[in-house]
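Predict the 3D structure for this chain.
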Amino acid sequence: MVALLCGGWLALAARPVPAQDASPTMGPASTERITAELVSMTASATPGSTLILAVRQDIEPDWHTYWRNPGDSGGATTLDWALPEGWEAGDVVWPLPERQPLSGLMNYGYSDVVYLPVATTVPADAEPGRILDLSVTALFLVCSAEMCVPDELTLGLRLPVGAADQTPLETRHASAIQAVLESSPRPAGLTARIARTDDGGLTLAVTGDAVQGPDGPGPVYFFPFEGGIIDHAAPQTGTWGPEGLSLTLTAGGEVRAGGLTGPVAGVITTGQGAFEIVADPGPLPEGVSGGGALQTDEGAGPAGFTLPALVQAALLALVGGLILNLMPCVFPILAMKAAALARAAHEPREARRDGLMFLAGVLVTFLLLAGLMLGLRAAGEAVGWGFQLQSPVVVLSLSLLILAVGLNLSGVYHIGQSLQGLGETRLSRLPGGTGAFFTGVLAVAVAAPCTAPFMAAALGAALIMPWGAALIVFLMLGLGLALPFVAVAFSPALLAGLPRPGLWMDRMKGLLAFPMYATALWLAWVAARQAGSEVLALGLIAGLMLALALWLWGVRQAGAGRWTLILGALSLISVVAALVVASRIEPVTPTGATASADAGPQAEVWSAEAVVTAQAEGRPVLVNFTADWCVTCKINERVALTSGQVREALTATNAVYLVGDWTVRDPAITRELERHGRSGVPLYLLYAPGTDAPRVLPQLLTPGLVAEAIREAGS
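Done. Predicted structure below.
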């Protein structure tokens, strides 16, 4: 969606900066994105005084760096000083940042030219007349709307020590540095309190002379020093009164999860300036309301939602849902759809009821999954569409559920005792409307985690909209998925073309059980990929126990006389045993150590720094974001990405092939998907050397399409 924190930033920021192999650059140092320079407010240093140094950033158009709290993404600039013995550099004096709303996120940072002043103590025994070399290693995260790059520059300044009784001359940077010092947030003797509201939000009250005035404090905004305290992109509203102001804030993920655990520090901006505050949790003071509503600033609100945007996203979701029926991800559920259509083909009322109940099952499940996903994201979790299949417990549970469906289609047991006599053949089926609803639920749980054309753009838009609008988009997506089945159910002419019920239907139901068994095996394999090889054995044991339980139940249904209660008890014991075995499965966390072996030729693990490194070497980069539970991903890999044409194109262009495996939850991959407006896999990116924005390949690949795109990127 936007320029999020690059994977290499944390590693670079966390590691200690080693001794420099080369002398620092005296004067400006540059990358393609930023020019930086270590400058001084005065032309010399005075012994026993404070010298104001500053790191000057000249940032290229459409790029930006970050404040001490970068907001929803990014990373603050860090400075590592190398100064003469006895010299001591203080903290950065951070200028008031710009608010940078983009695609529903809010970042705090800087563009164009900015100075970061640092007060430096000069020892009293500094020798006048001596020329000293000052050095700082600055690590900038420089971002555009398309990508982020960590740029590390070592900057130097040669500065003489002046006499203690002489006033040093100012440099050409003095006025700019002085302006930053004068306008930067500062303490103003304000008293602040913060409290949770009944609806889980936050109220910040600030009192004191600097926030008072006969006409109110002017436009107000609160910048917290730490992330996770507030939702940076949410609007900030409030009131003012004779003693100060009250600001209504949306709580961030950390506060929602753990509450207010201590004081909240930050900067409050008003029409009179920007002031540092520390808000202690506690009762709010009087006199912060009654004067009127605070002035708001449009820059503080979330971007990306308008009524036309909602209409467009809803239509894209409808079309995406329709196309989803043609995607390989839906293959596992086609057997259930076919069985349902055949069953009610010559009962128009029953067919219409089943169609509507299938639609209800799809829509309800879409709403539940979408609500859960949006809730987790609002709590600060990095999740995307298909998150339910990133848990091996959920995957194995689905495997057992689909095994049960297959056994029902095979006639091992019956649900609802709804039997039809067909000569001497018994046809078992799920009870009408309940079965259709259940089919819709499974269709979403198993098939929807993959994305289709148009669907990806719709979901990306939905995730930056308010909850109500986002749920409308998800409902339209569900409507698109269910619409073909509903249309057939309400088309008597189409249904009349099917043969009358008979022995063929019983045979077809038995045949359609085998795709369900295949799906159950596939999901068991996915769970094994997620949690290790032992989970496969546990899954097989659980499946065996479940099959035994359902067979015993089927025997009981057929009439077991005095054995009925015993068989029922044995069946229940087997089900409990299957659940106990399944409950022993524990998910693993991604290590990023390996790439999927079947994802393509010579696959390396994706990371943001791997992309940057390959591009710096002038090599094309093909990125495959995939998951083992994504059928479309696996088909693309087997058909296109492992083909000879693609291998030859990668070799001929010296391209790098990277795989981001999302089988198990990985927040870094989730953020990268979001940065490109996606909420799920597959996603295929192709970076050409010297370009920042990648080419996004289609979600259904052919060998020729991929090979030709790689050759174009290489040329």
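The two ends are 28 Å apart (CA to CA).
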